[in-house]
Backbone:
């Protein structure tokens, strides 16, 4: 009914965190502290780069799920957006679905992303380190 | 059926992404994120539905299956339209930006 709202909310939070981290990281790099990232760029990929993929995954899934809900007439492009919003009984069902299905969706996507990042980091750390030369 | 079609789309997109260059010039990763994100979420939806209706989940009515297939293909089409929008917006090859110059005189 509105399960996609939970992953969409997580996507919004992750995007904000990502913007803040990227801004901070660029500030540090501008101060000439980029030596750490110059050594084996892949193994020491900044966290905000990894986080960006989670936000894209969550946004992508939420957009397509929103389309599915629109298809089934569960949401509408005008206020109150949820067709169940006018009926209190249906609204409580919406909240229940958000708490169960929606939360599970958000958790499953996050866990899948974390697993991929873990496997990838193990694969990269198994490779010999390389040094990236930076122009000054 | 929607989940199945989206998973196939996600796998095909991932194969194309892997075959492409490291720079991801065609922005295929956008398609991967869209389809994998939706596939993971619909998988959870399927798990909850299976817990509710049990084996009946695997024997849907023909009309429901047709509607779900139609929805699945529409989702794939929407994903492709979003990807095309992202590709033209980012314009990695600069073709979109150069377009007015090529049509002049």
Residues:
């Amino acid at each position: 009914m509105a399960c996609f709202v939970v992953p969409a909310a997580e996507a919004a939070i992750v995007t904000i965190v990502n913007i803040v981290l990227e801004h901070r990281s660029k500030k540090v790099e501008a101060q000439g502290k980029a030596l750490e990232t110059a050594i084996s760029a892949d193994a020491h990929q900044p966290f905000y780069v990894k986080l960006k993929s989670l936000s894209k995954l969550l946004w992508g899934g939420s957009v397509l799920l929103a389309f599915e809900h629109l298809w089934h007439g569960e949401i509408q492009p005008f206020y109150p957006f949820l067709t169940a919003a006018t009926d209190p009984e249906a609204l409580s069902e919406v909240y229940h679905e958000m708490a169960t299905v929606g939360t599970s969706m958000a958790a499953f996507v996050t866990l899948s992303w974390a697993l991929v990042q873990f496997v990838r980091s193990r694969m990269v750390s198994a490779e010999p380190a390389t040094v990236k030369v930076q122009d000054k | 059926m929607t989940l199945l079609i989206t998973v196939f789309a996600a796998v095909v997109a991932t194969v194309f992404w892997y075959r492409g260059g490291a720079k991801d010039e065609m922005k295929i990763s956008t398609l991967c994120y869209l389809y994998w994100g939706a596939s993971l979420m619909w998988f959870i939806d399927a798990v909850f539905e299976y817990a509710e209706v049990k084996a009946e989940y695997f024997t849907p009515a023909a009309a429901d299956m047709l509607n779900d297939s139609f929805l699945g293909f529409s989702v794939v089409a929407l994903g492709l339209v979003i990807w095309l929008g992202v590709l033209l917006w980012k314009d990695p090859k600069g073709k979109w930006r150069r377009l007015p110059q090529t049509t002049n005189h």
